Amino acid sequence: MRFSRLPIYLAAAACLLPPASSAQEAPTLAALVEAAWQRSPVAHTLAARREETAAARDVAASWLAAAPTLGISDRSDRWTDQRKQRETELSLSAPIVLPGQHGARRQLATRAGEELDAQLAQARLAIAGEVRTRLWEAAAAREVLAEKSDHLHHLEELAADVDRRVKAGDLARSDSLLARQEVLAATADVALARGRAGEALARLRLLTGTAALPDVEPEPLPPESGSADHVRLRAAQAAETRARAAVDLASASRQAPPTVALSMRREREGGMPGADRSIGIALQIPLSGKLRNRPAEALAGTQLATAAAERAQTQAAVDMDLALARDQLANARAGLEAVTSRAAVLREHTALFEHAFRQGEKPLADLLRSRALTHEAEVAVRQQRIALALAHAHMNQASGILP
Q1: N or C, which end of the chain is more exposed by having fewer CB within 10 Å?
Q2: Using one digit for the tens of pLDDT, what is the confidence trace for 268-304?
Q3: Angle formed at CA 178 by CA 177 and CA 182, multiple of 5 degrees
Q4: Is residue 85 part of a domain?
Q5: CATH code assigned at 209
Q6: Which residues have CB under 8 Å from 311's CB, separation 6+?
């Protein structure tokens, strides 16, 4: 029977794949995602931005609005009256953040860090989606190669049987030529399938650094849930929250920060012995109004409006992706049931034709046609199983679930 030898043919077809797929131990899907994440430029960029957010938090925790200024001045009458008068002053000044501005700066820095964390999770989910797609492309190509190799083997068996019957005088020479051309066509199909399998594995290797495939089992489906806690939606909400914090900071920054200065002066008067020393404290309060800060407030408001619109669009996109994934899953299940039933009918049909051919009741052309249809149906079953597994992966991806 054809199906009793199927595992052997699958193993033989696997040997036709590139050596990297058999030389490595089969990884898990989570391991492939982690490998792709480590190779992703986006991952390295976002990870490097952690230093930016950490630096922003340190700056926001400070009460200084800018770097302090150190000043020194020296004045004497050496070049004028020559009364030996001299005055030296050393000062240190710094703009001080107002209490409301200080809280708004710290809030913005915190929200920026939360946005980065959400972006990291979103980027990792996007990488997982690419891995899932490449993985099931490679799995589908491997299944096609296995089935075509199996079909070639059986055509070779049939051609050998036809040759024996031609030599015995039971069949015409034309039947032997017909069987041989079917073998040659199947051989070309195997070569084409092997090339496509190699290409699919190469794309997977480029993404993950390995061409080893995990067990091609469908991912477990998540429990039925909404999109409230979706990774993409959390990232959009974090961006909106960060933009709102920027608006609060712009509103709190209408008044420019005051400057506090501490100075120490040393004065020498003529020929008087010793020198006078004094310490001074100065406060400068900028007289500014709303007009100075309007551009910054307008820019922050624009960014908030953009983030809110993107959050609403992301919500709609996530809901649509979930609905499409559910439909795809239902269609894949229905399709698998249909092609499985068709393959069972065609297998029975081919078995009857094989018996009739051996009895001389059916010509070889009819048997080859029946076998071709059965082979097509079996390929469809294999491909539909892959499609169902891919639908599982799409459902998890749409639900925001990482492997």
Answers
A1: N
A2: 776 566 667 888 898 888 876 667 778 888 988 999 9
A3: 115
A4: no
A5: 1.20.1600.10
A6: 233, 236, 237, 239, 240
